[in-house]
Protein backbone atom coordinates (compact mmCIF):
# COMPACT_ATOMS: atom_id res chain seq x y z
CA UNK A 1 0.00 0.00 0.00
CA UNK A 2 2.83 2.40 0.79
CA UNK A 3 4.40 1.93 -2.67
CA UNK A 4 1.18 2.32 -4.66
CA UNK A 5 -0.03 5.13 -2.43
CA UNK A 6 3.22 7.02 -3.00
CA UNK A 7 2.88 6.83 -6.79
CA UNK A 8 -0.83 7.26 -7.51
CA UNK A 9 -1.78 10.86 -6.87
CA UNK A 10 -3.36 13.39 -9.20
CA UNK A 11 -0.96 12.84 -12.10
CA UNK A 12 -2.74 9.95 -13.79
CA UNK A 13 -5.98 11.93 -13.90
CA UNK A 14 -4.38 15.06 -15.41
CA UNK A 15 -1.09 14.20 -17.10
CA UNK A 16 -2.39 12.05 -19.99
CA UNK A 17 -3.65 15.30 -21.49
CA UNK A 18 -0.35 17.07 -20.83
CA UNK A 19 1.61 14.30 -22.56
CA UNK A 20 -0.82 14.28 -25.51
CA UNK A 21 -0.06 17.96 -26.14
CA UNK A 22 3.54 17.01 -26.91
CA UNK A 23 3.10 13.75 -28.86
CA UNK A 24 0.23 13.59 -31.30
CA UNK A 25 -0.40 9.94 -32.16
CA UNK A 26 -1.97 7.11 -30.15
CA UNK A 27 1.19 5.04 -30.61
CA UNK A 28 3.47 7.69 -29.15
CA UNK A 29 1.09 8.53 -26.30
CA UNK A 30 1.01 4.91 -25.17
CA UNK A 31 4.72 4.54 -25.94
CA UNK A 32 5.80 7.33 -23.56
CA UNK A 33 3.61 5.89 -20.80
CA UNK A 34 5.04 2.44 -21.45
CA UNK A 35 8.58 3.85 -21.37
CA UNK A 36 7.76 5.68 -18.15
CA UNK A 37 6.48 2.42 -16.68
CA UNK A 38 9.69 0.61 -17.64
CA UNK A 39 11.73 3.38 -16.00
CA UNK A 40 9.62 3.09 -12.83
CA UNK A 41 9.96 -0.71 -12.85
CA UNK A 42 13.73 -0.48 -13.26
CA UNK A 43 13.77 1.96 -10.36
CA UNK A 44 11.72 -0.48 -8.30
CA UNK A 45 14.36 -3.21 -8.79
CA UNK A 46 17.20 -0.78 -8.00
CA UNK A 47 15.55 0.53 -4.84
CA UNK A 48 14.71 -3.05 -3.84
CA UNK A 49 18.40 -3.99 -3.87
CA UNK A 50 19.37 -0.83 -1.99
CA UNK A 51 16.69 -1.54 0.61
CA UNK A 52 18.28 -4.89 1.39
CA UNK A 53 21.71 -3.26 1.76
CA UNK A 54 20.68 -0.25 3.85
CA UNK A 55 17.23 -0.73 5.46
CA UNK A 56 17.69 2.33 7.69
CA UNK A 57 15.16 5.09 8.29
CA UNK A 58 15.64 7.77 5.63
CA UNK A 59 15.86 5.48 2.59
CA UNK A 60 17.37 7.42 -0.28
CA UNK A 61 19.03 9.85 2.13
CA UNK A 62 20.83 6.97 3.87
CA UNK A 63 21.93 5.44 0.56
CA UNK A 64 23.48 8.71 -0.66
CA UNK A 65 25.15 9.38 2.68
CA UNK A 66 26.77 5.95 2.87
CA UNK A 67 27.75 5.73 -0.80
CA UNK A 68 29.01 9.26 -1.42
CA UNK A 69 29.31 11.94 1.25
CA UNK A 70 27.04 13.57 3.87
CA UNK A 71 26.95 16.69 1.67
CA UNK A 72 25.25 14.77 -1.16
CA UNK A 73 22.72 13.31 1.27
CA UNK A 74 22.09 16.73 2.81
CA UNK A 75 21.45 18.28 -0.61
CA UNK A 76 18.93 15.54 -1.29
CA UNK A 77 17.11 16.25 1.99
CA UNK A 78 17.31 19.99 1.31
CA UNK A 79 15.89 19.56 -2.18
CA UNK A 80 13.23 17.20 -0.87
CA UNK A 81 12.05 19.73 1.69
CA UNK A 82 12.11 22.85 -0.49
CA UNK A 83 11.40 21.52 -4.02
CA UNK A 84 10.65 17.84 -4.56
CA UNK A 85 8.31 16.65 -1.85
CA UNK A 86 6.98 19.98 -0.66
CA UNK A 87 6.38 21.25 -4.19
CA UNK A 88 4.73 18.02 -5.27
CA UNK A 89 2.50 17.96 -2.20
CA UNK A 90 1.49 21.57 -2.76
CA UNK A 91 0.60 20.96 -6.40
CA UNK A 92 -1.48 17.90 -5.53
CA UNK A 93 -3.19 19.76 -2.68
CA UNK A 94 -4.28 22.48 -5.09
CA UNK A 95 -5.52 19.79 -7.50
CA UNK A 96 -7.50 18.21 -4.68
CA UNK A 97 -8.99 21.60 -3.84
CA UNK A 98 -10.16 22.26 -7.41
CA UNK A 99 -11.91 18.93 -7.80
CA UNK A 100 -13.31 19.07 -4.30
CA UNK A 101 -14.82 22.48 -5.00
CA UNK A 102 -16.17 21.26 -8.35
CA UNK A 103 -17.80 18.36 -6.54
CA UNK A 104 -19.27 20.33 -3.63
CA UNK A 105 -19.83 23.77 -5.23
CA UNK A 106 -18.51 25.42 -2.07
CA UNK A 107 -17.56 29.07 -2.39
CA UNK A 108 -13.98 28.90 -1.12
CA UNK A 109 -10.58 29.71 -2.53
CA UNK A 110 -8.45 26.84 -3.85
CA UNK A 111 -5.62 27.75 -1.53
CA UNK A 112 -7.81 27.73 1.56
CA UNK A 113 -9.10 24.20 0.83
CA UNK A 114 -5.59 22.99 0.02
CA UNK A 115 -4.26 24.43 3.28
CA UNK A 116 -7.08 22.82 5.25
CA UNK A 117 -6.39 19.41 3.70
CA UNK A 118 -2.69 19.68 4.49
CA UNK A 119 -3.45 20.68 8.09
CA UNK A 120 -5.84 17.77 8.69
CA UNK A 121 -3.42 15.19 7.29
CA UNK A 122 -0.55 16.67 9.28
CA UNK A 123 -2.54 16.12 12.49
CA UNK A 124 -3.44 12.54 11.50
CA UNK A 125 0.16 11.59 10.83
CA UNK A 126 1.38 13.24 14.01
CA UNK A 127 -0.70 10.60 15.82
CA UNK A 128 1.79 7.98 14.65
CA UNK A 129 2.56 5.55 11.84
CA UNK A 130 -0.34 3.26 12.78
CA UNK A 131 -2.93 6.03 12.43
CA UNK A 132 -1.35 7.40 9.27
CA UNK A 133 -0.92 3.95 7.73
CA UNK A 134 -4.55 3.05 8.37
CA UNK A 135 -5.72 6.20 6.60
CA UNK A 136 -3.36 5.50 3.70
CA UNK A 137 -4.57 1.92 3.26
CA UNK A 138 -8.21 3.04 3.23
CA UNK A 139 -7.57 5.79 0.68
CA UNK A 140 -5.46 3.46 -1.47
CA UNK A 141 -8.36 1.04 -1.88
CA UNK A 142 -10.67 3.89 -2.88
CA UNK A 143 -8.11 5.18 -5.40
CA UNK A 144 -7.84 1.79 -7.08
CA UNK A 145 -11.62 1.51 -7.23
CA UNK A 146 -11.82 4.94 -8.87
CA UNK A 147 -9.27 3.96 -11.53
CA UNK A 148 -10.93 0.60 -12.20
CA UNK A 149 -14.30 2.34 -12.57
CA UNK A 150 -12.77 4.82 -15.04
CA UNK A 151 -11.25 2.01 -17.11
CA UNK A 152 -14.39 -0.17 -17.16
CA UNK A 153 -16.75 2.70 -17.93
CA UNK A 154 -14.43 3.98 -20.62
CA UNK A 155 -14.21 0.56 -22.25
CA UNK A 156 -17.86 -0.52 -22.09
CA UNK A 157 -19.98 2.63 -21.75
CA UNK A 158 -18.07 5.31 -23.66
CA UNK A 159 -17.97 4.69 -27.40
CA UNK A 160 -14.63 5.07 -29.22
CA UNK A 161 -13.90 8.31 -31.04
CA UNK A 162 -14.44 7.69 -34.75
CA UNK A 163 -11.26 9.48 -35.90
CA UNK A 164 -7.78 9.75 -34.48
CA UNK A 165 -8.61 7.19 -31.78
CA UNK A 166 -6.97 4.02 -30.54
CA UNK A 167 -7.84 2.14 -33.75
CA UNK A 168 -5.17 4.23 -35.44
CA UNK A 169 -2.52 2.08 -33.77
CA UNK A 170 -3.08 -0.36 -36.60
CA UNK A 171 -2.23 2.31 -39.16
CA UNK A 172 -3.87 5.18 -40.95
CA UNK A 173 -4.55 8.60 -39.49
CA UNK A 174 -2.95 9.13 -36.13
CA UNK A 175 -0.83 5.98 -36.39
CA UNK A 176 2.89 5.65 -35.91
CA UNK A 177 4.60 8.46 -37.80
CA UNK A 178 7.52 9.62 -35.65
CA UNK A 179 8.52 12.32 -38.09
CA UNK A 180 5.12 13.97 -38.29
CA UNK A 181 5.36 17.58 -37.16
CA UNK A 182 9.11 17.42 -36.39
CA UNK A 183 11.74 18.60 -38.84
CA UNK A 184 14.82 17.20 -37.09
CA UNK A 185 15.73 14.20 -34.99
CA UNK A 186 16.74 16.55 -32.16
CA UNK A 187 13.28 18.14 -32.18
CA UNK A 188 11.68 14.71 -32.02
CA UNK A 189 13.88 13.56 -29.13
CA UNK A 190 13.34 16.74 -27.11
CA UNK A 191 9.60 16.54 -27.72
CA UNK A 192 9.55 12.97 -26.43
CA UNK A 193 11.58 14.19 -23.48
CA UNK A 194 9.07 16.94 -22.80
CA UNK A 195 6.23 14.40 -22.89
CA UNK A 196 8.13 12.23 -20.43
CA UNK A 197 8.14 14.98 -17.78
CA UNK A 198 4.43 14.67 -16.86
CA UNK A 199 4.64 10.89 -17.34
CA UNK A 200 7.57 10.49 -14.94
CA UNK A 201 5.99 12.91 -12.49
CA UNK A 202 2.92 10.66 -12.44
CA UNK A 203 5.07 7.54 -11.94
CA UNK A 204 7.31 9.13 -9.31
CA UNK A 205 6.99 8.08 -5.69
CA UNK A 206 8.27 4.50 -5.70
CA UNK A 207 11.11 5.57 -3.39
CA UNK A 208 8.90 6.89 -0.58
CA UNK A 209 8.32 3.47 0.99
CA UNK A 210 12.07 3.21 1.64
CA UNK A 211 11.91 6.29 3.89
CA UNK A 212 10.29 4.17 6.61
CA UNK A 213 12.33 1.02 6.01
CA UNK A 214 13.50 1.05 9.61
CA UNK A 215 9.88 0.84 10.80
CA UNK A 216 8.87 -2.13 8.60
CA UNK A 217 9.05 -5.73 9.82
CA UNK A 218 11.82 -7.67 8.06
CA UNK A 219 12.59 -4.87 5.56
CA UNK A 220 15.21 -6.97 3.76
CA UNK A 221 12.44 -9.38 2.74
CA UNK A 222 9.21 -7.36 2.68
CA UNK A 223 10.34 -4.03 1.22
CA UNK A 224 11.85 -5.36 -2.06
CA UNK A 225 8.75 -7.48 -2.65
CA UNK A 226 6.48 -4.50 -2.00
CA UNK A 227 8.47 -2.26 -4.37
CA UNK A 228 8.37 -4.66 -7.32
CA UNK A 229 4.73 -5.69 -6.90
CA UNK A 230 3.54 -2.15 -6.19
CA UNK A 231 5.32 -0.55 -9.18
CA UNK A 232 4.16 -3.30 -11.55
CA UNK A 233 0.55 -2.87 -10.46
CA UNK A 234 0.74 0.89 -11.01
CA UNK A 235 2.18 0.45 -14.52
CA UNK A 236 -0.76 -1.79 -15.46
CA UNK A 237 -3.30 0.69 -14.08
CA UNK A 238 -1.69 3.69 -15.78
CA UNK A 239 -1.53 2.03 -19.20
CA UNK A 240 -5.18 1.00 -18.90
CA UNK A 241 -6.22 4.58 -18.07
CA UNK A 242 -4.30 6.00 -21.04
CA UNK A 243 -5.72 3.38 -23.39
CA UNK A 244 -9.23 4.33 -22.30
CA UNK A 245 -8.58 8.06 -22.62
CA UNK A 246 -7.19 7.75 -26.16
CA UNK A 247 -9.96 5.34 -27.17
CA UNK A 248 -12.78 7.50 -25.87
CA UNK A 249 -11.49 11.02 -26.57
CA UNK A 250 -9.12 10.57 -29.47
CA UNK A 251 -5.75 12.30 -29.55
CA UNK A 252 -7.07 15.79 -30.28
CA UNK A 253 -9.81 15.49 -27.68
CA UNK A 254 -7.33 14.29 -25.08
CA UNK A 255 -4.87 17.07 -25.87
CA UNK A 256 -7.56 19.77 -25.68
CA UNK A 257 -8.95 18.89 -22.27
CA UNK A 258 -7.62 19.66 -18.80
CA UNK A 259 -9.75 16.98 -17.13
CA UNK A 260 -9.53 13.83 -19.30
CA UNK A 261 -10.95 11.51 -16.65
CA UNK A 262 -14.03 13.67 -16.18
CA UNK A 263 -14.55 13.87 -19.94
CA UNK A 264 -14.38 10.08 -20.32
CA UNK A 265 -16.85 9.54 -17.48
CA UNK A 266 -19.16 12.25 -18.83
CA UNK A 267 -19.26 10.36 -22.14
CA UNK A 268 -19.95 7.11 -20.30
CA UNK A 269 -22.46 8.17 -17.65
CA UNK A 270 -23.28 11.84 -18.20
CA UNK A 271 -22.94 14.45 -15.43
CA UNK A 272 -23.29 11.76 -12.78
CA UNK A 273 -20.21 10.02 -14.11
CA UNK A 274 -18.27 13.28 -14.14
CA UNK A 275 -19.19 13.93 -10.50
CA UNK A 276 -18.24 10.39 -9.50
CA UNK A 277 -14.78 10.65 -11.02
CA UNK A 278 -14.32 14.10 -9.48
CA UNK A 279 -14.87 12.41 -6.12
CA UNK A 280 -12.37 9.73 -7.12
CA UNK A 281 -9.76 12.33 -8.04
CA UNK A 282 -10.29 14.17 -4.76
CA UNK A 283 -9.82 10.89 -2.86
CA UNK A 284 -6.73 10.00 -4.89
CA UNK A 285 -5.02 13.30 -4.20
CA UNK A 286 -5.92 13.09 -0.53
CA UNK A 287 -4.33 9.65 -0.37
CA UNK A 288 -1.14 10.93 -2.00
CA UNK A 289 -0.91 13.75 0.51
CA UNK A 290 -1.41 11.27 3.34
CA UNK A 291 1.45 9.14 1.99
CA UNK A 292 3.75 12.14 1.68
CA UNK A 293 2.98 13.32 5.20
CA UNK A 294 3.60 9.80 6.51
CA UNK A 295 6.99 9.12 4.93
CA UNK A 296 9.12 12.10 3.82
CA UNK A 297 9.60 13.72 7.29
CA UNK A 298 11.66 10.66 8.24
CA UNK A 299 14.38 12.06 5.96
CA UNK A 300 14.49 15.34 7.90
CA UNK A 301 14.58 13.26 11.08
CA UNK A 302 17.64 11.43 9.72
CA UNK A 303 19.29 14.75 8.80
CA UNK A 304 18.83 16.05 12.34
CA UNK A 305 20.23 12.82 13.74
CA UNK A 306 23.35 13.47 11.65
CA UNK A 307 23.63 16.97 13.14
CA UNK A 308 22.70 18.62 9.84
CA UNK A 309 19.36 20.13 10.84
CA UNK A 310 17.51 21.49 13.86
CA UNK A 311 17.87 19.14 16.84
CA UNK A 312 14.16 19.44 17.60
CA UNK A 313 13.39 17.76 14.28
CA UNK A 314 15.00 14.55 15.57
CA UNK A 315 12.89 14.38 18.72
CA UNK A 316 10.12 11.79 18.80
CA UNK A 317 6.80 12.41 20.46
CA UNK A 318 6.53 10.42 23.71
CA UNK A 319 2.96 9.51 22.85
CA UNK A 320 3.08 8.64 19.16
CA UNK A 321 6.82 7.97 18.71
CA UNK A 322 6.99 9.91 15.44
CA UNK A 323 9.02 13.05 14.53
CA UNK A 324 6.17 15.50 15.05
CA UNK A 325 8.28 18.61 14.46
CA UNK A 326 9.49 17.25 11.10
CA UNK A 327 5.95 16.39 10.01
CA UNK A 328 4.60 19.80 11.03
CA UNK A 329 7.50 21.64 9.38
CA UNK A 330 6.88 20.02 6.02
CA UNK A 331 3.13 20.57 6.30
CA UNK A 332 3.63 24.27 6.93
CA UNK A 333 6.03 24.69 3.99
CA UNK A 334 3.73 22.75 1.66
CA UNK A 335 0.86 24.99 2.74
CA UNK A 336 2.85 28.12 1.89
CA UNK A 337 3.63 26.77 -1.59
CA UNK A 338 0.02 25.68 -2.10
CA UNK A 339 -1.20 29.18 -1.36
CA UNK A 340 1.19 30.74 -3.86
CA UNK A 341 1.84 28.22 -6.64
CA UNK A 342 0.12 26.19 -9.36
CA UNK A 343 0.51 22.60 -10.49
CA UNK A 344 1.78 23.50 -13.96
CA UNK A 345 4.46 25.90 -12.70
CA UNK A 346 5.83 23.47 -10.12
CA UNK A 347 5.93 20.35 -12.31
CA UNK A 348 9.06 20.99 -14.37
CA UNK A 349 11.47 22.06 -11.66
CA UNK A 350 10.28 19.29 -9.36
CA UNK A 351 11.10 16.66 -11.98
CA UNK A 352 14.49 18.17 -12.88
CA UNK A 353 15.72 18.16 -9.28
CA UNK A 354 14.13 14.81 -8.46
CA UNK A 355 15.84 12.96 -11.30
CA UNK A 356 19.30 14.29 -10.44
CA UNK A 357 19.07 12.33 -7.21
CA UNK A 358 17.40 9.32 -8.82
CA UNK A 359 20.47 8.98 -11.05
CA UNK A 360 22.86 9.44 -8.13
CA UNK A 361 20.96 6.91 -6.04
CA UNK A 362 21.14 4.29 -8.79
CA UNK A 363 24.93 4.78 -8.83
CA UNK A 364 24.94 3.58 -5.20
CA UNK A 365 24.34 0.04 -6.48
CA UNK A 366 27.81 0.03 -8.11
CA UNK A 367 29.46 1.49 -5.00
CA UNK A 368 27.87 -0.93 -2.54
CA UNK A 369 28.58 -3.96 -4.72
CA UNK A 370 32.23 -2.94 -5.04
CA UNK A 371 32.47 -2.67 -1.25
CA UNK A 372 30.90 -6.11 -0.80
CA UNK A 373 33.38 -7.56 -3.28
CA UNK A 374 36.33 -5.91 -1.53
CA UNK A 375 35.13 -7.26 1.82
CA UNK A 376 34.57 -10.75 0.34
CA UNK A 377 30.99 -10.83 1.62
CA UNK A 378 27.87 -12.27 -0.01
CA UNK A 379 26.29 -8.95 -0.95
CA UNK A 380 22.61 -7.98 -1.23
CA UNK A 381 19.88 -10.59 -1.03
CA UNK A 382 17.94 -8.90 -3.84
CA UNK A 383 19.79 -7.98 -7.04
CA UNK A 384 18.85 -5.77 -10.00
CA UNK A 385 18.02 -7.96 -13.02
CA UNK A 386 20.31 -7.25 -15.97
CA UNK A 387 22.79 -5.22 -13.93
CA UNK A 388 24.96 -3.37 -14.91
CA UNK A 389 23.26 -2.70 -18.25
CA UNK A 390 19.80 -1.96 -16.84
CA UNK A 391 21.23 0.23 -14.09
CA UNK A 392 23.37 2.23 -16.52
CA UNK A 393 20.38 2.75 -18.82
CA UNK A 394 18.29 3.98 -15.88
CA UNK A 395 21.01 6.44 -14.83
CA UNK A 396 21.35 7.72 -18.40
CA UNK A 397 17.58 8.23 -18.71
CA UNK A 398 17.47 10.14 -15.42
CA UNK A 399 20.11 12.62 -16.46
CA UNK A 400 18.80 12.94 -20.01
CA UNK A 401 15.46 13.92 -18.47
CA UNK A 402 17.22 16.58 -16.38
CA UNK A 403 19.15 17.97 -19.36
CA UNK A 404 16.08 18.01 -21.60
CA UNK A 405 13.93 19.66 -18.93
CA UNK A 406 16.48 22.43 -18.45
CA UNK A 407 16.67 22.84 -22.23
CA UNK A 408 12.89 22.96 -22.71
CA UNK A 409 11.88 24.89 -19.58
CA UNK A 410 14.93 26.88 -18.40
CA UNK A 411 13.07 29.37 -16.23
CA UNK A 412 11.26 26.83 -14.06
CA UNK A 413 14.10 24.35 -13.81
CA UNK A 414 16.79 26.91 -13.00
CA UNK A 415 14.72 28.08 -10.02
CA UNK A 416 14.76 24.56 -8.63
CA UNK A 417 18.46 24.13 -9.31
CA UNK A 418 19.25 27.48 -7.64
CA UNK A 419 17.35 26.37 -4.52
CA UNK A 420 19.30 23.12 -4.57
CA UNK A 421 22.69 24.87 -4.83
CA UNK A 422 21.73 27.13 -1.94
CA UNK A 423 21.93 24.00 0.18
CA UNK A 424 25.73 23.89 -0.11
CA UNK A 425 26.40 26.85 2.22
CA UNK A 426 23.56 25.62 4.44
CA UNK A 427 25.35 22.28 4.82
CA UNK A 428 28.60 23.88 5.95
CA UNK A 429 26.66 26.09 8.36
CA UNK A 430 25.07 23.06 10.04
CA UNK A 431 28.37 21.18 9.99
CA UNK A 432 30.14 23.99 11.88
CA UNK A 433 27.18 24.40 14.21
CA UNK A 434 27.08 20.71 15.14
CA UNK A 435 30.58 19.21 14.66
CA UNK A 436 30.53 15.43 15.17
Summarize the structure.
With 436 residues, this protein is mainly α.
Explain the overall architecture:
With about 425 residues, the chain is mainly α. The chain has a single domain, classed as Amino acid/polyamine transporter I (Up-down Bundle). Helices cover about 75% and strands about 0% of the residues. The protein is built from 16 helices and no strands. The chain has helices spanning about 1-5, 10-20, 25-55, 60-65, 70-105, 110-125, 130-155, 185-205, 220-255, 260-295, 295-305, 325-340, 345-375, 390-410, 410-420, 425-435. The protein is globular. The two termini are about 35 Å apart. The relative contact order is 0.20. The model has no long low-confidence stretch (mean pLDDT about 80).
What's the helix and strand layout?
Elements: H1 2-7, H2 11-20, H3 26-53, H4 60-67, H5 70-104, H6 110-126, H7 129-156, H8 185-203, H9 219-255, H10 260-295, H11 297-305, H12 324-340, H13 343-374, H14 389-408, H15 410-421, H16 423-433
Helix pairs in contact: 2-8, 2-9, 3-8, 3-9, 3-13, 3-14, 4-5, 4-13, 5-6, 5-10, 5-12, 5-13, 5-15, 6-7, 6-10, 6-12, 7-9, 7-10, 8-13, 8-14, 9-10, 11-12, 13-14, 13-15, 14-15
